[in-house]
Model the fold of this input.
Amino acid sequence: MTLPVPTAVKSSQLTATTTGFIAHENAMRRRGERMENYQNIIMYKLAMHMAEDMKNRGIITEEEYVTIEQKMCEKFSIKSTSIYRNMT
Done:
């Protein structure tokens, strides 16, 4: 006959609390960074869509379009190697 082994009920308050908060904070920070990056990409793409429309209508020149593209990359933190950039 086997007797049930009692489970440990007491845990280290310091370890449990600290680990829980650190993991939670890291996860929330990463989620916040991803959301910010996503929003930056969306805003960049919207701005470039409008700039491309203006270029196609003859409102701005190709050179002005390139300048706008560079400024929007800086504003929305889009790297030069990003797959989301509008390359012409």
